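Question thread 4412

I'm putting together a teaching handout and wanted feedback from people who do this every day. The idea is simple: show students a protein as raw sequence, then show them the structure tokens that encode its fold, then repeat with a second protein so they can compare. Below is the first pair exactly as I plan to print it.
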Amino acid sequence: MTKQKPALGLGPIGWLFSEARSIMMNSKEKAEHFHQLHRPREPLVLFNIWDPGSAKAVAAGGAKALATGSYSVANAGGYDDGEKTPLDIVIGNLHRIVQATDLPVTIDLERGYGATASGVAASIERTIRAGAIGCNIEDSLPGNGKLRPVEEQMQRIRLARTAADDQKLPYFINVRTDVFFQGLPAEQNEAMLASAIERAQAYAEAGANGIFVPGLADEKLIARLAAAAPLPLNIMVNQKTPSLRNLADAGVARLSYGPDPYLRMMKLLEAAARDAISIQH
């Protein structure tokens, strides 16, 4: 393969800057396309991945975009979920995934890998340099899982937005609210719905692009949240949620599978290993 020569007059340094600009333009196009994929009643389906191999497999299955899942990335690397995977490993894994696909890639950044809002901003910058066009950030506290005060989470979102804007990238910040993880599934009620709407409105004001509400499974509450929230609604699919068709009809704009794909693959691997090893007995 013939190596491309530097453009006339640019010189080696100028050519490198030209290449960097070209890569960023490509990332910008991917980010813009990713925004457009969030359509209520025609939801973007994200079958979450954890490494370059799973990225290629899901892309081959017809995915329009790719999203990592923190649980899957952590367990595949031998770590527990909950920001126990060192950020250097998370970013390295992200970079390899981006290199393995032409699809837009968004990363599950858990609570933002930052004790402070400025720490979250620094993490966002690293994901952009690695090629991500978006992320998930949770609004619960490490350790006890309680919700952060709204204003504190807004500040984290504001600085994340500024960090992305400084890179000239329409980075998609999908804020996960753990409102529906604060009680038992049977306790899903009007107060929780009101809290989720309030947080969605506040997060939109701070610069978020989407609202992710895992744990919410009641179809009527999902439809009311989709109608009231100022951001595209993301729901996690599991055995307790309505069918994909019903979720789409409820106005959901994004569907995530979380750790489910990884867990399925590990069960298949275990069963296949058991079958193969059983011939020894």
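The second pair follows. I'd like the answer to focus on this one:
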Amino acid sequence: MHDLKLFVAPGTCARVPTIALEEIGVPFETELVRLAAKQQKTPEFLAKNPKGKVPTILIDGKPLTENVAILTWLHRTYPDAKLLPETTDELERVKQIADVAFFSATVHPIVTRIAMPMYFLDGEGAYDRIRPKGAEAMGPVMSMVNERLENGPWWYGENWSVVDGYLFWAWWRITGVGYSADQFPNIRDHAARIIERPSVARAMQREADNIEVLKSEGLYLAPK
């Protein structure tokens, strides 16, 4: 059995591997990284992940970064959890990685422009200028996702996967700062279904507990 420690922060995409680990059902530890205190920039953390980001996972003490890599490793190491659909077709395997990469490399950067526009421009202008541009870019992407969900309740039809966890995080992040859900009913219904999944509920409880820790320390930054 592997010794697993996942470094997380509430609201970040570290939720996705947290959901995956809860779905797998193996013991794992999460460690809160206090972003408001710039703990991710300390020498101790940078020694684990020089990029200064979460998620970072320690596997038997060895770090692995980037959600695409983390989720791929978890899927291959714990195949019985079926984080991605079973297939013997190598092209299909690569397409599954492409689906995870789509959320990591295409959706996620747009999410950041909507949810955290201050990363791109100082002052209130970030919300007036960057966020609308992010919402504009997100429209066709979410339209494509909404259309895909016509084929079933999950990304892969009847089969839940960790890709659904990534979609859930992205949707939660943008609607949490006011992005309209009305024009994408399939994604809205997807979010309502997934929140009832036990693995997701446990992951969200971990986040809620960490939020309370941050509040007690005066380090919680609520989404604006």
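Top answer:
Good format. For the second protein you could add a caption like this: Residues 90-115 form the longest helix (26 residues). Strands lie at 4-8, 29-32, 56-59, 62-65.
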